[in-house]
Amino acid sequence: MCHTMTRISSLLWLCHVCVFNISVAKVCTLQNSFHPGFMAEGDFVIGGIFPLHYNQEMPDLNCTYKPPPVKCNGFDPRAFRWAQTMRLAVEEINHSSELLTNYTLGYKILDSCAYPLTGQRAALAVLNGMSEDDSPMCSNASPLLAVIGESGSAQSIVVSRILQPFRIPMISYFSSCACFSDRKKYPTFFRVIPNDDYQVKAIAQLLVRFNWTWVGLVRGDHEYGRFAVQGLLKELQGTKVCVAYQEMIPLLYNRRRGLEIMEVMRSSSAKVVVVFSAEGEMTPFLKDYMTQNITGIQWVASEAWVTASVFSGSEYYPHLGGTIGFGIKKGYITRLGDYLQTVNPAMYPDNPLVQELWEALYGCNAIPSSPSRLPLCSGHELQLPQHSAYMNISSPRVAYNVYKAVYAIAHSLHNLLLCQPGSGPFENNSCAQNNNIYPWQLQYYIQEVTFNIAGEEVNFDLKGDSVPYYDVINWQRGTAGNIEFVTVGLYDGTKPTGEELMIQEDRIMWARHQSEVPVSVCGASCPPGSRKAVRRGEPVCCFDCVPCDSGKVSNQTNSIECTFCPDEFWSNKDRTACISKEVEFLAYDSLGITLTVISVVGASLTIAVCGIFFYHRNTAIVRVNNSELSFFILFALVLCFLCSLVFIGEPTAWSCMLRHTIFSITFSLCISCILGKTLVVLAAFTATRPGDNVMKWLGPRQQRAIIFSCTLMQVIICAAWLIGAPPQPFRNTQYEHSKIIIECSVGSTLAFWCVLGYIGLQACLCFVLAFLARNLPGNFNEAKFITFSMLIFCAVWLAFIPAYISSPGKYANAVESFAILASSFGLLFCLFASKCYIILLKPEKNTKQHLMGKEKK
Ligand code: TRP
């Protein structure tokens, strides 16, 4: 800490001290000097701060001796090229016949070592002179009109804070941090690079576009990384993208932390990793990464490293190939290539930076006198891959920004000098004094400047920002196995929302040399037929797929919800579409056909019996047993058998009405006949004498009348039913949701049970009477059979009720027609089997004597 303080105070050696007290000036000494890398005199001097080294050694914190000069490590040829671009621009302007014609620009270029503290030192050094004597501080004019710099936002913040009190404007060529948009905090800050607000928007759109819903974020430990991640998180809110992890690479890289981050990357299913960082910390991080054998990572690079040629070596391709990101706008600087060639140790024998450049490019020692372990340069050095970091001028991006920044200052100065006294922008319409320009006066002109450079218009908005434009850059394999930065699209922030991003997807080569878009999701996508179910306590992007319930469908991948099918529809097996529900009724399928066959067989059997009886109508057994009633019963039974047929087939208005009515009337008829018969039997045997009154009252006519009236009763009930509330076909969707069951609603339940009850009543009555008559004498007492048949009849129908109520859909009909058939068969067999047996097989027993039981054995 004390170290830092000493340095600040030692360098803060400011003008007013000298101005107000000349005698003090003598004791005013520069405590620590810091030499510019390059400098040139001129009428107006501008400063340039570049990160000519990647990093510096940690300062020594011991305060018991004078702190040694800072040691910077890792020469950065790319930043050196930027610095040279600034010199080129100044020289061009000085030679120009249009800009600043009678004036020259000077510059001081300092190294910040990509470190905020050193940037601060550079800022102070650029304000101070090199020594007390040649310091312009003590003249009236400002020593410095503007500063071009810095690169990293973290350094720019510090530099801006130092320049602010003096109102010295600065134009940054690479500091994109959104934080600079706060005009109150950074009133003198301008930049020729878009604000990161746009970049994070672009990255968010990219993630959404490629459906990367589960991504990792890695950033460096600086304002740039912090604000960019913050901005991206904000931008991702409300999109389908979730962040799997956020990691920070320490400013001074350490391997243990790096490996921890890699472990997170390896274990996460987020294959897309967005990195807001720069070469400084990325280089050691990636070196470790390449030893870790982590596969399938798709990098999304921020503008800070997406065009960093340090990573273009072929050793990086297997790990970084396919990287995609947004690069800042490129431009073309005609003379840059030639100019860079002129920078060599021969031209600058005393410049340590040039020597370092040579060491970095060719790995040799360019200056014989200097102490170096490297072999001496021969002058015919081979071009090494590192060379491209310096000489790569095919598409300068940051260098182009530097170039624009210098021109912006030159144009502003030019405008300032053109000011007509009396119509100037300052107090009382005054102009700036040409020989004593204040930096704040220049700031005014920078804010207003608009000019054209290589066909591009340059200006600054009220926040000092410039136009948001990015190239989409994809890292593809070059011919030599190296990485080439291929432009595959663009992002134009001035376009209306939604149209900013334009990508030629077919030109993109993804990570691991693949042409399919990599997948980076937490939960695999849910196919149609299922829906997402968010896991508790996890981000919304992590979900399980749950199949839709039956009756619900989802027809899109990744549906959030399954939707109900409309009423008459039901989900198909896969739950991907609604199909019309299956309609169910007792059709002529196997069940229907069986029932039909049984009923036809029953009816035929009955007719056969009828035939036998008719044929043998004159035999005793037929005559004794009241042949007329027998025929009636047989006729009714035929109808009973046949009426089960109306229960088969699709219910229609007619068949519904017929079903229960025909059934109940025929059964009523049948049982009435049996009842008649029972009465006759009872009467015949209870009559004491022949010709008794009872028999008179039960003659054939009366019998018919009884049958008729008993049946009529049922007919009346049925008529009332049909008129009042007739049964109707009814589409039952409730019983089974997947089917529509077409059934006959009973209309009136009361009527239904009345009808059944009436039959039941008849049957019971019949049963009781027959039961009373069962023991009456006679070899062929029909009462026994009638008792038995009624017993069966009642049993069948009692069993029918619970079966009917509990059977679903079409089975209810089947049960009913089964009950009809079973009871009909019961009646047929009980009443007629034994008679047919005697008629056909035992004709000898078919005599009156035998039947009356009077036959002598
Ligand atoms: N746009 C970055 C920034 O604003 C670029 C950058 C340059 C950078 N140097 C850096 C980022 C060093 C991180 C570290 O900071």
Automatic annotation (TrEMBL):
Keywords: Cell membrane, G-protein coupled receptor, Glycoprotein, Membrane, Receptor, Signal, Transducer, Transmembrane, Transmembrane helix. The keyword Cell membrane applies. Residues 591-855 form the G-protein coupled receptors family 3 profile domain. InterPro entries: ANF_lig-bd_rcpt, GPCR_3, GPCR_3_9-Cys_dom, GPCR_3_9-Cys_sf, GPCR_3_C, GPCR_3_Ca_sens_rcpt-rel, GPCR_3_CS, GPCR_3_vmron_rcpt_2. It is found in: Cell membrane. The keyword Phosphoprotein does not apply. The chain crosses the membrane at residues 591-615, 627-649, 661-685, 705-723, 750-773, 785-805, 817-840. GO terms for cellular component: plasma membrane. It comes from the Eukaryota. Residues 1-29 form the signal peptide. CDD domains: 7tmC_V2R_pheromone (cd15283), PBP1_CaSR (cd06364). This is Extracellular calcium-sensing receptor-like. It comes from Betta splendens. The gene is LOC114868605.
